[in-house]
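hiii so my PI (J.) wants the whole complex modelled not just the main chain, which honestly fair. so below is everything: four entries, each one labled with what it is. i double checked the lines twice but i was tired so who knows lol
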Amino acid sequence: MSDANTTALAKALSSAMGEIHQRGWCDGTGGNFSCVLSQQPLRLLMAPSGVHKGSVAPRDLIQVDGEGHVLSGQGKASAETALHLEIIKVCGAGAVLHTHSQAGTLLSQWAIDQAAGGGRGALELKSLEMLKGLEGVKTHDCSVFVPALANDQDLSALSSRANPLLADAPHGLLIAGHGLYAWGRNLGSAMRHLEILEFLLEQRWRQLLLAAITAR
Amino acid sequence: MSDANTTALAKALSSAMGEIHQRGWCDGTGGNFSCVLSQQPLRLLMAPSGVHKGSVAPRDLIQVDGEGHVLSGQGKASAETALHLEIIKVCGAGAVLHTHSQAGTLLSQWAIDQAAGGGRGALELKSLEMLKGLEGVKTHDCSVFVPALANDQDLSALSSRANPLLADAPHGLLIAGHGLYAWGRNLGSAMRHLEILEFLLEQRWRQLLLAAITAR
Amino acid sequence: MSDANTTALAKALSSAMGEIHQRGWCDGTGGNFSCVLSQQPLRLLMAPSGVHKGSVAPRDLIQVDGEGHVLSGQGKASAETALHLEIIKVCGAGAVLHTHSQAGTLLSQWAIDQAAGGGRGALELKSLEMLKGLEGVKTHDCSVFVPALANDQDLSALSSRANPLLADAPHGLLIAGHGLYAWGRNLGSAMRHLEILEFLLEQRWRQLLLAAITAR
Amino acid sequence: MSDANTTALAKALSSAMGEIHQRGWCDGTGGNFSCVLSQQPLRLLMAPSGVHKGSVAPRDLIQVDGEGHVLSGQGKASAETALHLEIIKVCGAGAVLHTHSQAGTLLSQWAIDQAAGGGRGALELKSLEMLKGLEGVKTHDCSVFVPALANDQDLSALSSRANPLLADAPHGLLIAGHGLYAWGRNLGSAMRHLEILEFLLEQRWRQLLLAAITAR
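here's the output for the full assembly
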């Protein structure tokens, strides 16, 4: 990718991170965000670890290779880079956006708690027009299952457990008590899927409350 | 309409869409928005299908005729154009704003679930001062019924089912699990009705919660 | 008041209205807002009736006398001007801010429903540090009662019923299913009381939910 | 600290206060915020008491010594300065941010109500990835206890009761019905801990609601 393209993508990613922080989806040092600069060899542009994602200037982004090593820029790559890379390799994603929202943190754990065990579950989203915002979904009249995994500080192990789930995932994966990974062909598509999935998570939360109060 | 008027309306519609996205009422590629440029022959200015409605520049809006065919601009007209046109024809609306809010998505489905069946229901809103923000309502001391229809990917069929309900609708129509259509004589009036109806939907949600916790 | 002072106050009031709309406290054409320009003779600067309060330029404000007649500017004075004037006369207020928030609309009605009848009630707020933001309150360890009245389209009658309650009111009055009137010595003080009371209303709502779920 | 450094810190603190108000965490005259200018002798930069914290210009901040006396600037130091100083002395904090959020106000009281008595309690936060945003926490798989104290208008007494709890506190302390104190090595670190703790408080609130509706 040319320097001009890298500069444009860095601006776009920095701006997206600012918007995402504005919405309360990456408070503190939470969340991480990456874009593919090139596929052959694999090069990512991403935020360094441990910084406030809402105020990262384009020049403060780092470049990382396909094994998660930093090629240029100040700072370390997050351990979560392993899962970004897994998603990029399995799904052909051009951008991965990982958020820590209220609904994502809550319902990811709930999905695991409802499941049979084994640290795996899924959140069902159904009969909602907004599902059509997910690439490949053509009607509201369907069920979409967002896979959920128990959290793990060993990102290599977590990525291995995620691997078999990614190909069928609706551009999103939940990690329990942690948050959402959303992705897409490029940054615009990943942002669209992120907004759609965060909307649907919040909607699912309201549906649970409504079901409880109308069940009396 | 003169070119100057078209330009002014395009700016106003683009700006309104930005505000609506800012409020979280059209995440992802959700929602659609149109203004009438001329009635004879019928010409609409609207957002193209499948784009992020919060960042459509005035020059990226398309012009559409009374059968939903694109006359100028890049991109396709949404299938939902059929329902925009139905509302414009039946109600004499000058602008139609279609949103996907949390409360609209939730309570539209609830209205259908509470109803006798047949894919039709209504949401009652009563004894609220904000009702007076709807054109024609002169007192808080009344009930307003927002009609609700089951969702359908066949927009022609959906528009036909909407037709008999539109003349009496309070400048708003709900589609279940989908969202709100709000309209008015012009863009300003439609925005006013949209803000009022979205406020009332959120209020109705809180009323349901309050009723549940005080019923014990 | 000099022209320069009027201009400065008009700017401050227009800006305050923009902020209040931004917070979702005066959607559609809801709410009304006034400042005292002079006490002898009584002159108010206020928003005209029926407009969107979030986008009123300083030059679009009207001047009104002590009987609610428009002295200058385009547009009508809201019928609610009667209650603004009542508050100004009884409480010596320099500014009155009337909002339609979610919590204010909901809990004003709840306060009436909980009361013995007669269209009067009160919302108790207690043991909260934020109470100290109300002028005259020196400790969190107290109860403050915000009076509430049933809504009435006859603003003259409503103002008469409000009259005996105003002197002891904590710079705030609730109208059921309608919203909050907050006031203060000047615009800054009224804004402070508005923010405090809206915070406390929202907090009271959360307290009710928490009490319900911990009562099991 | 040089004048240039003081100016830069004043700008950063004023800007942080604006952001905090924007999020609804210091409405009215609520909250207070301080930064350490020098440790030997101890000098704080902070907002004066009784003002709207969202609109304090850098030049309107006051300088305060280690006993809470104002050294320069207009206005009084808040009585709460005593608790800021206690935190700075015990924890070596470089900045203290004290907010009045909805969840902080509510759950601080709840923590006291759940406790055995004596005006002391703690809010447990566990198994959440966001805990790792607190300095020193390396895994989600742990419990963090935010200490809570009953509110008291005697800030000297309150500071004495806080003293034994501060060394082990997770960069945060709750005062019942009042709010959160968050701190860090410097302003950036304190802002990070504030965002993390406010996120976790809001999450705890949602967890309580979810537990109630799934317990049926």
